[in-house]
Structure formats: C-alpha cells, structure tokens
Write the structure tokens for this entry.
Amino acid sequence: DMSQRGRKWEAPVKIGCRLAPNALVKSALTEGLADPENRVTQAHITLYHRWAHSGAGVLVTGNIIVDRRYLERAGNVSIDLECSHTYDSSQRKMLQAWSAAAKAGGALLLGQLSHAGLKVQQAIVDVTVGPSAREMGVIPEGSRARERSHQMLPAVARAATVDDLDLYVKKWAHAARVLEESGFDGCQVHAAHGYLISSFLSPKENVRIDEYGGSLESRARLLVRVLRAVRGAVSLDFILAIKIHCSDLSDKGFTWSECANVIRILDRECLVDLIEFSGEIGRALRAQRGVVVGDQAPQRAGNSGCASAHMVL
C-alpha cells in the first residue's frame, strides 16, 4: 500500500534511549533573538511554542555558542564556561522556559552547540580562530556583491593552540550539561558549514602539522574529543547528535569518502545517536548550474542532499 509506505514518518522513532513521536525533524535555523548579553529571551519562548505545535517530532534549536567571543551573529544564545552570566540562575530559568515551550506538543528538543570559528564575521571580532591562520575575507574585484559591507565578511583567523582546543572541549561538555539540567532532551554538535570543527575536518582549511592535522584521523580528533567529553558530562539517555556536511564540494577539501570514514570513526565508539548530513548551499547551487566543484560531485546537487539536511539514526 503506497499510502501507508509514504506515511512511515508518522510512526514513533527511537533516538538513543528516547522516543520521538514521529520522524519529522525541524532542523536548526539560527534565530538571532538573544539579548545583548547572549541570553535567552521571551522571543525564543514564543517562537518555539509555535513550533511545538507544528507536528514535528524533534526540534533542533539554532546556534547556542560555546565560546561567546566567536558568535555566528549578534543575537546568538551562548552558554560559555568562562562567562557565568550565560549559565547563571536567570539564564537557566529562561533555558527551562524555552525547553518547556518547545516540548509542549510532545516533541523532543535538541540544542545545537556551536563554535563559529572561520565563519565569524569582521563585525563580531577582529581576529577569530581556526585550525590554521587565514587572511581577512575580501570581496573580489568586479563582484556584484561589492556593495555588501566588509563587516559581513570573514574575520582574520589565527591558528588555535592546543590549549585553546582543550578549553573548547571543556566548553562543549559544560554547555551540554547545562542544557540537560535545563530540560533539553539532547544536543547537536555543529560540525558543518565551515564552523570550527568542520574547518578542522577540511584538508583545505587545516594545514596543521601537529596531532590535529594531516591524516583524517588527526583532523577528526577535535570532533572525537568533543563528543567523548559531552558523553562523559551528561546522562546515558541524553541524545547526542552531530551536524556534518557530506563534502566541501571543493577541490582539495573535505570529501564524500572522508565524511563516510568520519562516521565510521564515530561508530567505533558509538559516540552519536543521530546524524544530520548537510552541506555548503552556495557550492551546491554552483554544482546544480553545472560548475565543476571537485570531488566527483553529483551533476545535480539538488538530488545529492548537499543543500538540504538528511537525518540518520
């Protein structure tokens, strides 16, 4: 019966130790609704109360930044180990209200934990951090985008030190613990779209010669460390998900086969309960127009999943 097969998404689905009412997922959309101190506001609660009654079985929040210095944009919520106001009693009360509103219709709620890394704009900081140093982003001469503010372009990046990475791992674990204590059902570690972890995975962005660069195992080290730390900081029934893009769709970048091998690395330790595959939309659109983008990319990115999200349990 085709009608029955087409409605399989309506059946409850187990994610880790928890049961979602159905397999429909509202993926992360950055909200930009936080106050100037990067705290949850009533606007989050109102928005997620509406999404709670959308019929989705799982809701994933937009960016919750684990290091307040490196926002994806102004208006991000942050839970930063080094900034106590981002996890004090007032913030926790609002986090609890956010989670209660989102779960009012029976959906599970995952908080997306991010470090924007190389995606941080010049409007946010003068110098961001990445796997390797990078010059400030510029608009090419003759580009129709030249009227855009340079403040919207990527900031200069310095190479993260090992001490930096040790601290970021602690920050991810701390933020996950705060989410669990605030009623969230799980978290999603952002490892896509050129954010910090994603850029470590990319051989194009990551030219380090230490234990975090070179082989795929080494480039995936930060991701593995973050997931291990989060697992150790939360209870067994707290869902741990990742968002990862399947390819940079760029010559010398992160490839489809490398993505599959990263998933195998994570699977060895059963580190994640849910995987969202995504991609760089701009590059995918170029592929759809027939532009050669490397890595044996599909002729039509619209059929590849690179510009959209796919979930795997």
The two ends are 25 Å apart (CA to CA). Residues 164 and 257 are 29 Å apart (CA to CA).
